[in-house]
Structures are given as C-alpha cells and as structure tokens.
Amino acid sequence: MDGKSGGSNLPRITEKFEYDAAIGGNCRLDNEITTFQHCHRRMEEIKALTSAIANPSSTKLVFQKLPKHMRRRAMSHNPNRLPRKYRLAHRAQMSKSGAPAKTKRPSRKYRRKPANLLLEYQKRKRSNIWLETHIWHAKRFHMTTKWGYKLAESSCDKTFRSSYRATIKHCLIQDISHVGNIEIRGPLDILRNGFERMRGRGTSMELGICAKAYIGGQREGSIELFSIDSYPYGALGRFQFIWKRPSENDTQQTLWLFAHPSVYQQLVDELCKLFDLEVQDDVSSKSKKHQNVATTVELHEMKNHLNRFRLTGPLSHAILTAAFKPKVAPASDEHSWFSDYLGNEQNSFVHETHSNHWNKLEHIKSTAELPPGMILALNIEDPRINRPKKRTKAVPSIESLVQSVDEEACCTIPDFNGDSVIWDLNQRERIQNEKVSTHEICVQRNKNILVPGERCAFENKLQAVPVLLIQRPGSKNPKRLGYGGGYDVIIPPGYGISTWMCLIMWGAKPGALRETETISREALEDEFLPDTETAVINSNLTENELRKKYFRRPPNKRQNYLKHSIASPFKCPWPQLIQEWCTYSTNSKFYVLRDKNKLREIEQFLGGRSKTLTNIDENCLIPVSLAMNDRGNANKFSIICLPKKQDLRHNRTNRKQFINKPVLTEPLAIDQNETKRKLLRFHHLTTLKRLRRQRIRVKRKNQEYSEQKVIIAPPRTANLINSQYDRMCELWLPSAPKTIRQQCSREVFGYLTQCQFMFHEAKVAGIGYVTVNGIRKLSKSTGNQVLVRDSNSLNYRLATLACRCH
Question: Is residue 13 part of a domain?
Fold first, then answer.
C-alpha cells in the first residue's frame, strides 16, 4: 500500500523487480511460462545427464560419488560399507590396483566365535592350568597366577562382609580343585609302617593315617606329615586323606591323599623315597605311575583328575539336598554305566542304601548334627535338570522345623558309605565320554517338552553322576566351635561347571582364595605354618613383590624403616629371631610346636595357673592369638614386643583420664646410611656423565673421517646400573639386619602372620608366633599383656596374648 493513497483500499499495480547479484541491475520476470517451451529446454539437459551416467568419464571412484552423509572412511578398503547395489562396481575398480593387504587383526566378533574361542583357550592353557569353572570365574573375579594355576583371588564386587555372613548364616562355595590327589595302593602293614616314619613316633598328636576310625573308608582324616625320620623338623604340611573300603579277599588297600599344589611334588618325592618307588610307563592311564615290584606298593599322580568344591555354612546341607537328587533305577532297555553298575545285586543294594540314608538326613538343620568327617557316596541325577529357573535360596523345609530328626541316621555311618565308582579311573573316563552336551539337552527339550517348565522323558534318560560328600566339622576352638564347617563335594571330570552352576542357582555364594584366608583367620588357624617349605616359598615370593613395589616409589615417597627402627618390614625372620633368643644353641633351625599337651601347659603358664615351663625346646615357635585391648590397628609382619611396667602404668593413667593416646611412641632413630646413599648417588651420576662424554668424543672423532652419519654408541651400562640398584636397596633395607630382638626400644619376641578386624571378636585381632624364652620373660613381668606395633607406624598398642592349643 502506498502511504500517499489517503487510506484508499484499491490495489496498486506495481512491477516485480529482482536484483541479480552476478549481473546487477533490475530484471523483469514473466508472469507465466509455457510448459512446452520449458520441457523442450530441459530435454537436452536430461540427455546429457543420462549419457554421463551410462558412460562415466570422470576419475572419481564409486564410493566418492556418494552423498556426503553416506560416505564412510572405511569404504575405500571395505566394500561391505557401501550400499549393496554399488559393491560390484566398487570391487571392479579396486581390483585394478590389486587386493589390499590385511594389516589389521581379525575383529573381536570374529575372535569370539565358539570355534576360535576354543583354539584361543587351548593356547592360553599351555602356560597355566585352568579349572573347569575358570571361564565362569574370569567374568566375575580378579584372577591370579599361583602354583601353576590360574585361580580366582577375589570378587570384583565388594563381598568381604557378605562372604563372612555366608559362612555364619548361609553357605559359601569355593572351587578347590587345584588341590591335587595322590593315590597309593599297597599292603596295609607296609603303608602303616611307612607313614609312621613321616608322622613321628611317640608323639602326642592326633590319630595316625592308618587308625581304625579311617581305615574302613567311612570318614575323612587330616594329618600333619614331615620328611622321613625328621620330626619335629622338616614339616611338609597338613593333608586330608580318605581310604577306599577293601573287598573281602583284597590284600591291597587304596588311599587318596589330597595335597596343596605348592607342596604336591615335594610330597610325591618323599613318598617315592619312603617306599622305594620307581617310575613306570603307564600307557593306559593319563597319570604318572610309581611302583615297587617287591612290596607291591603303587603310587598314581591324579593331579587335575577330580573336581572338588567346598561348601561352608549352616545351609550347606539344605543346598545339597535341593541340588542332589538320587538317581532312580533306569529302565531295562537303557544302556549306560549306571545300568551296568546296577546289574550287580550288591551294587544295587549299596545304591539303595545310600539313597535311603540321604533321604533320612533331609530334615537336619546343619551339618554339625552329622558325625565329623562322614563320607557318603551318591549316584545323583544330572545337575543340569535340577537347576531352578531363577536363583533361589535353599533353606530347611518347614517339616524339618517340626519333625524330629532321625537320630540313628545322624549318629551312625553305614560300613559301605564310601563305596562308589568314582574310585575307578576307567569308569570316570567312561562317564566323561558318555556325557550329553548341554546343547543336545536343549535341542531334545525343545522337541519333546509338552508343558513349559516340566521335565520331559528325555531328561530322565540322562546318565547318573557319582559324587562323594565329605562332612567337615569346622573349628575346635571353644569360642568358635563348628565355625567353618560344611561339606566337601568330589565330582568326576566333565561335570564341574554343571554342578557349580546348579549349586550357585540354589543360593550358594561364590568365594575365592581371599575367603580361604579369611575363614582360617576367623577360626584362629594358619593355612601355612612358618616351618613348612610352602610357607618359606610363599614368604620369599611375597617379600620380593613388596620390595619391588617399595623401590618403585621415589625416595621422598618411601617410608624410611631405618628411622622407624623396623628391621624386616616385608618378612618374618624366624631363624634370626630364634637364634637371638636361644641361650645355649647357635643353630638357626626351628619348628612350630604342635604337641597339644605342651601347648596346654603354655596356656596355663600364661594364665597364671602354672609357674614353670619345662621340657620345651628353645628352638620352637609358639602359635599365639592376639586381641587389641583398645584402639589401634595391626597388619601382617607387625612386631610383638615385651612391655615394661612403666608402660602399663602409663596406660592405666591414660584410661582413667579417658585419653586414647598410644601406650608408647617409638622415637625416630638416626639413619646412618643417608650420607652414604647421597654420596653413592652422586658418584654414580658422575660416572654415567663421564661415560656419555667419552661416547660423544668417539662419535665426533669418527664423524671427521666418515662420509655417512655416525650414531652414538649404546651406553652398555646395564651391569653398572644393576649393581648401583642393589647397593642402594641394601642401604635402604639391609638384607641381613644386625639384630631383630633389639631393633627398637622394646624387645621383639614374635611376629604377626595375619591380623585384621575380626567379626567374631568385633575388634582387631590376629594370629602369630613367639619364642619360648620370650614367653618366660613376659610372664614374669606383665602376665599376658604385650605391645604390638605395625611396621608402618611408630605407635605401640597393648594387646592380650593367648596360646592357640586347639
């Protein structure tokens, strides 16, 4: 509208103008266009485009002609990145320049294919042995390499407290299949006389390995074994064993010994030396065979032949009752090892007796109601068909809370309770070979199942699985009576992961090596006693790891143990400690006191009920337990010191005034090696610079007479640097301390081997070992009160000392 129209509503006809930036000026546009003329003009353009598409003459490739939003960087070497209709032309273009070289490794999707995974697993198993449950653990646990195995160390979740609750109120399961098995066969008299030499005659220890309580194959036993005729020195460790019940006319007895992998080979060597065994070629068996033709004693190494799971807690029996269902006798037309086994009338009677005995024990509330070490053999259904749909917590039924328990079944053990085909190697191999795969079970279940969730006829035809159930009584300490009790389950090879998954789904909480150490600490037991070869090897490995970790830190971030008066922060120097406390002997050999009578005598001496200690060797270490009286913390390698009377008076004064200060603070000592380290470092750096200047001079001299570029020679100072590193480590932490007993302001007479907050005590407590003369001196002055100091602290705290005699 024109502003000068005076408000008129008549439209004003104006010309349409458009500015052309390329040409400039005004341009008049037509108000209409003829369709025929427009198509005629566009026809030539359409012909040109069609000709260009049909006869391409440009140098662009197919993937370069795509719109920008469809282009990918990988299209140049991967045709599958292009749309399907362009792939053939792209391959034709790329073939002219030759096929591209495959420099990239196969994708993860390719590597994760089942066939490729199996090849990868077989390759990785060469260096370290895998258990059957390895893959399940590797997805959920931190794995570690120990004793030639790849084992689970701790859960990826925070399960420290929950694992303890499982051992107290529920059930904790651990795979201890790395514990090796040794089978020994021979006449009973020869075996008894031989093992007496390894046990120590005339000692007041537990029952021997050939005692009547174990020889019938009804119970599992535990015994400490030593090198031949070397008791009390040369301890090998503690071993579990079970006997196979002999037949009526059998003169040979069969014994299974279960040994920790760290001491397995050492035990085999001692047994071969004891019974004069020689290695024989055994082609039919996968295990090594040692034999003595004269005495008819045989030894078979059955390492990695069996699966062994450990269930700890009061609900262990409820979980096994839900998971293990005795196999019903198959139909007459079926052919399996179980049908052949039941073809014998005696075997059929044994199977029926085992099943009835297991059903009578269904309503017990805890494994503590069973005879200690009881062995029960079962032929159960395949664990894969007794697995719940979702994870369920198996608990004792309501009937078990109302009905009375069959006392006769709980207190008696049938004579043939341990009879099982799992003792036979050929039967174990047959069971493993005839096992139906899980894939086949799923396929048959989809074909034959009528009602979802119900059992089909095919599942009833699966072969039986023989297992051995071994009751574990737990701790014998009156304060922790029965703690750590449960079951050990021995399973044939091939059924490890199947049984493991079944027990997990019924509510068992998985644990690892960390839980084994926690259970032993809460039970006031040491897994490896200091005088065993296993403890020495593990101690040296731990010391090397901690020293390397310590020296990886810069000097200003390291704790100066010389100023803190700590002689051995990463190891317990037992030989030097014993030698400094002995009054008449200069021998550094020592052993741990295991005699129960003498340990009870020491317990009475510490409690004030006895005034003297007699007939106790000074070269022995006394196992003790400590509990912190008040505040304070301690860890592994903490020192146990003798307090003075003034320390106790100072502590009483602080407690009356409600002061939570430490009893004593160690004054900082003078580091006499500090100046030596600085001078050594200065001379070392000076030497390295001098050697570099020499190499530079040689390089420049050679460059003057050479037309090509001369490179400076390599330093070749590795030996010099290593020797410097060793000297500096020795000045920081001397490998041979001058004294252990007088290393600080209070006399040291022991070390802690394990210490942490204990749930049983509801305070910081631990276990350790002390010297005999140290206990004598302690009892004369302060009774059973000792000072404890961590290696990373200067503060001394009071603790109560007690002897571990259970």
Answer: no
What are the CA-CA distances from residue 401 to residues 324, 370, 404 (Å)? 21, 17, 8
Residue 637 within a domain: yes
Nearest in space to 340 (alpha carbons), one of 263, 332, 546:
332
- Cβ-based neighbours of 715, under 8 Å, separated by 6 or more: 688, 691, 692, 695
Flag whether 464 is in a domain: yes
Least confident window among 70-74, 84-88, 250-254, 493-497:
70-74
Residue written as token pair 């390698």? 637
Whole-number Å distance between alpha carbons of 158 and 534: 29
Tell me, yes or no, whether 334 and 438 share the same domain. yes
The 10 Å CB-count burial string (b at 16+, else e) for 159-178 is beeebbebbeebbbbbbbbb
Cβ distance 371 to 214 under 8 Å?
A: no
Same domain, 796 and 650: yes
Task: Please give the share of the chain, as a percent, with pLDDT higher than 70.
Answer: 91
SS3 142: strand
Q: Of the candidates 253, 280, 301, which is a domain's last residue?
A: 301
Rounded distance, CA 696 to CA 691, Å?
9
Q: How far is CA 766 from the centre of its chain?
A: 22
Bond from prior residue into 232 cis (ω within 30 degrees of 0): yes
Helix (H) or strand (E) holding 756: strand 748-758
Q: Are residues 347 and 415 in the same domain?
A: yes
463 & 323 share domain: yes
Residue 163 has pLDDT above 50, yes or no: yes
Question: HSE of 544 in the Cβ direction (CA atoms, 13 Å)?
Answer: 6
pLDDT in tens, 53-64: 777 666 677 777
428-483 residue pLDDT tens: 999 999 999 999 988 888 888 877 777 888 888 889 999 999 999 988 888 888 89
Do 690 and 660 lie in one domain? The reply is no
Domain-embedded: residue 25 = no
> pTM of the predicted model, to two decimals?
0.82
d(C-alpha 211, C-alpha 653), whole Å: 56
DSSP 671-686: -TTHHHHHHHHHHHHH
Residues pairing with 278 in the sheet: 291
Q: What is the largest CA-CA distance in the chain?
A: 139
Per-residue buried b or exposed e for 715-749, using 16+ beta carbons within 10 Å of the residue's own CB: eeeeeeeeebeeebeebbbeeeeeebbebbebbbb
Rg of the Cα atoms in the chain: 39
Distance in angstroms (rounded) separating the CA atoms of residues 320 and 490: 13
473 and 590 co-located in one domain: no
Domain total of the chain: 5
- Amino acid identity at 780: K
Closest CA to 771 of 638, 536, 629, 576: 576
Q: Is the model's pLDDT at 2 over the cut of 50?
A: no
The Cα–Cα gap between 647 and 663 comes to 6
Is the distance from CB of 308 to CB of 491 less than 8 angstroms? yes
* 598 lies in the same domain as 639: yes
Strand (E) or helix (H) holding 112: none
Quote the strand ranges of 230-348, DSSP E.
235-244, 253-259, 278-280, 288-292, 297-301, 307-312
Residue 197 neighbours by CB under 8 Å, 6+ apart: 228, 229, 274
Distance (Å) of CA 50 to CA 39, 44, 46, 47, 603: 16, 10, 6, 5, 105
Q: Domain range for residue 52?
A: 35-95
**Domain end point (choices 301, 326, 343):** 301
The length of the chain in residues reads 806
Cβ(295)–Cβ(190) under 8 Å? yes
Q: How far apart are CA 151 and CA 176, in angstroms?
A: 9
Indicate if 323 and 418 belong to the same structural domain.
yes
Residue with tokens 């709980």: 410
DSSP lists the bridge partners of residue 154 as: 142
User: What is the mean predicted confidence (pLDDT) over 215-240?
Assistant: 91
- Residue in 468, 659, 639 with CA at minimum distance from that of residue 569: 639
